[in-house]
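Re-run with default settings, no changes from the original entry. Doing this only to confirm the output is reproducible before filing.
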Amino acid sequence: MSSTTDKIKGAANEALGKAKQGLGDVTGNGKMKTEGAAQELKGKTQGTVGSAKDTVKSATDKL
């Protein structure tokens, strides 16, 4: 997966995770809230991986 794809998927997962957490709060659904937190964390991780790929590519391009 490219760094851009990782970043886009990460941002989408973060947004969906936050939405699930909010919906879980409103409805009192603890499972949905937990799933949302996990999805948000997954998104943050994907974004970090995308940034790391950019850093590595930039470093190797300078060689």
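The chain has a mean pLDDT of 96. The CA atoms of residues 16 and 36 lie 7 Å apart.
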